[in-house]
């Protein structure tokens, strides 16, 4: 089996409630984080059509990350945490 893993850090399975915050906080979309690493996550939405390429992902515990969508399906997005980049 070939390993096509391109991530810098391994992702761990997760089941966390979250919210995508867009338009400077004027719109939000409920979501579930299905896996998580220091540098990104796989996020599940009811529908990804209205999810922009950049948004803020806020977790129930109050932590949040600025995100860039790296891939997209009708119900899921893979995001990179922009605030986790090493300069």
UniProtKB/TrEMBL annotation:
GO molecular function, one term: cyclic-di-GMP binding
Top-level lineage group: Bacteria
InterPro entries per record: PilZ_domain
Every PilZ domain range: 5-84
Pfam families: PilZ
Protein name as it appears in the record: PilZ domain-containing protein
